[in-house]
Every structure is written in structure tokens, then in C-alpha cells.
Amino acid sequence: MWLKSKTNHRKTSRPKKPPFTYTELIEYALEDKGELTVSGIYQWISDRFPYYKSNDDRWKNSVRHNLSINPHFRKGVKAPQGAGHLWAISSGDSAENVLAWEHKKQRLDLFFKMESINRERIQQHQQQQQLQQHQQQHQQHSPQQKQHSAAQQQHMPQASSCMYDEAAVAVATLTQEMMQTNSGGGSTETSQQQQQQQQHHHHHSHQNHQNHNQHHQRLLPFNDLLSDDELRKTAGQILNGIHREVEVQSVNSIISTYHDVLLDNDYLNPIHKDVVVTESVLRQQHGTNLGGGNNNQNNQMGGNSHMGGGNSQYYITEIDPMELGIQMSHQVEPSEEEVLFSDEFNLNYFGYNPGSDIVA
DNA sequence: CCCTAAATCAACG
DNA sequence: CGTTGATTTAGGG
């Protein structure tokens, strides 16, 4: 089994451009510091976003341009020392924009949160690499037998254990509805905002899914999937090659705070599991119908997915492939710079079709 | 395809 | 540094 990264990354890939507009970056800076000179803004930005560390100064021009253009920023008094004026957020718009700001702030927080998670993942990954290399040196391993320790990797802790029981991990996979704790009204608000983002960024129809969040009652996805035992069995079959024509998609789960969402490649726009499943036709109703919102009774992913060749079964997993001990195709150690904004680890990883070289 | 927002380029004080 | 205009680019409808 192998996984192919969706994006080929070039060796020379520089830090990725952060998903924020100049307006947002400036906003963050000013909101954080209150007042800043232009060069102060440069500093603030380049301090936390490696992308803007380059010698290329074009972006500075854009920042200045933005300050002038956007009425949201106001020019204050002349700066104490030398250059230019102090800039601040225009105070006239704290009225309704508070919500907008909250939302933006969340985005920023989430961004850095994900960034740190990626760091951890990469560390893990590298550890595993070393481990495996070490092991391979000292023992010949018969491909037939895999150890089936009943490791319960249920809620995937932080960065600690690296499990090689593929089946177990794959099992841990789907279906684990993440905890269903309902944390107050704040959470609801969050969900709504996220859904708005979805609409913005996703190309499909969402009307069907809109109300999923409303029912907090156990309507979390995957309730109706296989039992644990069945899953274990099935996953084992998949991984042992008994099941063919299966695609496994990994969807990184977001941390506990955001228990009700999944992340796909766009972690700033979390997607509800239901949406992921339904929209990618992972589970298709036998009877074509998918309206009515919450009637997913069929577990067995009978869906004939449109992707890849013909009708392949489709599983969705929250487990990062790396944690399965699965090698990625490129095998390149990302540089430290690359760590930050590489999309390498936020993406969907597509396995695998024994015979054919289907690409994602 | 057109439309908009954002990014980029560029000139000037 | 700060303004301004022109041009290009990215995405969505």
C-alpha cells in the first residue's frame, strides 16, 4: 500500500504564502500592538510569517498601498523617532465589526495552532523514519505477518506513541465520533461561522447540510457505521490486501476544541464530517435520496464513488497516514522552513489501488 | 463569460 | 513613507 501526496512538492519550495490578505495581516498587527509605524508593521508581520522574511520587498509596497487605500486604517501622529506616522485601526467601526473581528481572530489562532500541530507531526514522522531505518537494519521482516496487537489508539493522543498496527489505527479511523460534548453557546456560534466559510469555499450545494449542526442530539456523523468489531475486521482486510479497490482518505481531525469538525486540506475552513462524507459521495444512499438531512442509515460504504476508476469503496479516516507507519511517496525530509506553510501534512492522502496507478 | 476583490506594478511628491 | 492610478490575477456566479 502506498499513499500519494496530492501535491508534488518541489524541493525548492519556499515557505508558503500565509492565507491572509494584507488587510488582515495589518489588522492583526495593529490590533495586537495598538499603534505601529509602517516599518513596525513590516516587522510584526515578518516576525511571525517566514514567507515575508525574504529579501523581496514587493510585499512592503503592498502593505503601504493597503494602508492608504483602506479606510479601515487611519494615520495617526508622526512617529516619535524618525520615520513616518503611527497607524492604527479606525475606531469608528467597532460596532458590528466585532463579530467579524472575532472571526478573524479565530482564523489566526487556528492557523498557528495548526502550524504547531504540523510541527509535532513532522517530528513524529522523522522519529518514525529513524525508528524504521533502525529496525530494518537489524531484522528481516517477513511481509506476511503483521503484529496485531490490540492497540487502542482511540482518540489519538498528542505526539507520543507511534503505533504500527495498521489495522488498529485504520480502525480507529472513521466512525469514532469525536466526543459529543456540547460546550455552551459559544460553540454554536462558532459552528455557524464555520458553515458560512464553507459556503464561501466549497463548490457544492450545502443546503442539505445546513441544519446538521442544529441537532446537537447525537446526530454526529458515523453513528451508524460499522461496529467496532466489524470495522476492525474490515480494516484488517483492507490493509492485508483482501479488499481491493479501496481508497482511504485521511482527513485530519482538528483538536478537541473543535470536536465537531474535520479538517481537510483547508484547515482554516473546517468542514463538518457529514459534509465531507456526503459531498464526496463517500456514502451514497442506495435509493439515491439524500435529502431530509439526517437519514444516513446505511453504513456499508456501498457508495460507488465517482473518483478513481469505477466503483471503489471509500473510507474516510481521521488518522494521519504517517501514524500508520505508511511511507509517503516523496520521502523527503522537509526543511525547517518548509515546515511552516507546507501543505504536505494538511492534505488528503489517497491510497491506493493495487493494480492501477490512479492518481488523485 | 463577466464581475469583484485582492495583489502587483509603477510613478511621483 | 504615503498617495494614487493602472494593470493583472484569482475566484465565484
TrEMBL record:
Family matches, as PROSITE patterns: FORK_HEAD_2 (PS00658), FORK_HEAD_3 (PS50039)
Regions of compositional bias (Low complexity) in chain numbering: 124-155, 295-304
DNA-binding region per Swiss-Prot/TrEMBL record: 17-108
Keywords: Developmental protein, DNA-binding, Nucleus, Transcription, Transcription regulation
Biased composition (Basic residues): 199-216
Residues annotated as domain Fork-head: 17-108
Region (Disordered): 121-159, 180-216, 288-311
Subcellular location: Nucleus
Major subcellular site: nucleus
One of the Pfam families matching this protein, by short name: Forkhead
Transmembrane segments: none
Single GO MF annotation: DNA-binding transcription factor activity
Keyword set includes Transcription regulation: yes
Keyword DNA-binding set for record: yes
GO cellular component: nucleus
The protein's name: RT01015p
